[in-house]
Specification:
Layout lengths: L2 H6 L4 H23 L3 H12 L6 E5 L5 H10 L4 E6 L2 H10 L4 E4 L12 E7 L8 H10 L1 E12 L7 H17 L4 H13 L3 H10 L3 E8 L4 E7 L2
Parallel strand pairs: 1-2, 1-4, 2-3, 4-5
Antiparallel strand pairs: 5-7, 6-7
Length: about 230
Amino acid sequence: MSSAQARTGTLDEGQVRAMFDRIARVYDRMNSVMTAGLHHRWRERAADLAAVGPGARALDVATGTGDLAIALARRVGDRGEVVGSDFSEGMLELAREKAPALRWEWANALDLPYEDDAFDAATVGFGARNFTDLDRGLAEMTRVVRPGGRVVVLEITTPQHPPLSTFFSVWFDRVVPAVGRIADSAAYTYLPSSVKRFPGPEALAGRMAAVGLTDIRWILTAGGIIALHVGTAR
């Protein structure tokens, strides 16, 4: 990964995979530091929006170390099934350590190895901005969800109005890269840049509609820094 690519938040697929393999062992710790532990609460809200209950089948795409998949598993219970998929073996290794009973699988979000209508819901938490082709990733998530099921996207977004926009800029442009130097300087320079180039809430809703989702709505939380989008497959 070049410094220029990190600053612009544009990496190719192989570079994204290699980056997450590198930072896997510090990923959870860095998330907790950067969000004061609130990322767990946001994943719980995403799992709620998936609207899955006992016996349901859910897919968590770009599952990372598995926290959102584990939240979904609590909702589907023993009679249901959750699949956590990722293309970083380093991340999947940690997910398997956390929850050995769950189904963890290597899969590319842009070419999911699942049949049409295979799941009651599909989620992605803080991974959509790393898709090298966002529309294709959203289309794949939509394809594997049955009609009436939900697709949920949890992502960081850029607040537009001060004072939060000022705080956000300082935090993501200066503090996150500085803290990230301890773990992986290039990866945590890439993070704020990838957030900036990701579509805002209204634009992301439009992209979700374009791949066939309906009844799309979004919730802004954490003062507008976090966006949760949900749409219904048809």
